[in-house]
Records
---
Amino acid sequence: MRRALRQRAERRQLMTAEADVLGELRRLRARLPQLTGALAASADGLVLARDTPGDGAEGVAALTAAALGVALRLTEATGQGGFRELLIRGEDGYVATYAAGGSAVLTLLADPRINVGRLHLEARRSSARIAELVDGALDKPQPEKEVRPPWPTPKPPSRKPRP
């Protein structure tokens, strides 16, 4: 229960960075016109921001979380250190996922004609910026919720001045 409450609080904090992260995704797509989609997601598959056509962002984020789990185990098992990036080449293009701090990932969809070196260069810069935004949102102290008793609070008696 405590873990679930902590996860909900983290999700609320992550969503505060949504506009800034979306701006970074749009700037990245402007620098790389061969990108067909970009999304930032939490490591557990929650979409933080997306700049993609269609409605499949939630499914891509969930699949990214699953692939991330496998990639983490693979890098650990082979002694290659922590996860940094994953590149998948399909017949019709690329899917690239980059670590964005400890709490988020950046997933990009690209045309098959993209320059992969440039993709890595720009995506690594953007993932570092997204990591700053997300980690900054998680580090911000959240305002304490005012605790009120479940019963009505009596008002103090009013005193009228004597004439």
---
Amino acid sequence: MSGRGSASSRRTIAQRLDYLIGAIHPAGRGPFTYHEIAELIRDRAGEGDPTVSHGTVQAIRTGKVTNPSVDSLRALADFFGVPTAYFLDDDVSEAVEDRIREIKESAEAAEAADELADVLQDNEVRAVAFRLGGLSARSIRGIKSIVEGFRQAEGLSEVKLPPSRRRRG
């Protein structure tokens, strides 16, 4: 370990598993349940591969089991697609979590780009967007307020935009 994290920043195996459960799951749904994790591990396991029960997953996540077997950690690591060392090494844990954040940010940006492309497929929307070019910031804020009022009147949800990557100076 390179010592990047202080003793107070070190996390337990339970905290690391909790992070994985919260962060890694299919889009559009919540985290896997303990039963789902155990069942999917069993379904994917080859001959001789380790498996875990839902009770073991729960006991590790809640901290009831603080020193799980290497096989349990290997099964969980394989399920979440991380190295087994993720659970034991602060540097590996930090690198894995940084990469998970990068992947999630990229996925969110791609989703936003897809949504924008879908919206711009409408010729009327595209025509309005092109006409906004060259207007002052004050005019654009006024038009935005008008559009938000119409969206609210028609019962449409508020539009949440991802943060812009362009720097305004």
---
Amino acid sequence: MNELLLIVSIAGSRVALPAAAVESVVELEALIPVPRAPGHLAGLSALRSRVLTVIDCQRSLELGTTELNDGELHEAAVVELDGHHYALTVDAVEDVVEALSDPAPIRAAMGDGWERVSKGMVETEEGPLLLVDIAALVAGPTAEARAA
């Protein structure tokens, strides 16, 4: 496969993001809230004269809320989708590794949030990892899930 993957931890789970989609890894400090925004949108932040829409990955996955306190640094992976820059909050950034296989279907229940963003399991030298669909993570929960 030869695709590079960025290993991150979200809600305590080690997962992989396609490294080609990640522009940088940053530490966010200040967040500006956005009134009436979807719950998984944590706020806005600035990076090198660019505005970043900050996505709370735990909320996007319906696994709780990331504690994003002002004055504290928060790790995030910066991605661009459709001309917009997003910062995906993560617990930790670990390493970049090479995928040793194509994504394979998952045959076990993982929870609605993980199933929504899953592109499948991919083998790496670190062991199997869930490959995350960044666009699905940014989109957040479905309207039905938000209403529940």
---
Amino acid sequence: MKHYEVLLIIKPTLEETEVKARVDFIEGVITKNGGKITSWQDMGTRKLAYKIDKFERGVYKVCYFEAPTALIEELVRNIRINEDIIRFLVVKYETKREIAAWEKLSRGEKLNQIKKSEPRAPKATKEEAKEENKE
């Protein structure tokens, strides 16, 4: 089984129960076709970068799951039929490094941040460098 992530952007005009129904539908498609859902993450309502079907905002949901490759085609077909999902993105994690990142993300952990190092000393000017070379 491969590791996947699907990001859904759902219409913001739906009520919470309707959004939950769309999420349950996607969950059903995944489980009925042999997939195993690891976690769902609710990213809330966010402003879109540009208007999509006259919507300026969208409800973001992310699902992390394991599934056979044949499931993805069926999942995409069902998402496209649903008019309440205005955008979606399916990501496949393949390498060991990507799978390790998938495991962290599915647990809700953040990926490693860039470590803050000690501030570096300013670079020597040309005059200072010449003086050091003379010594």
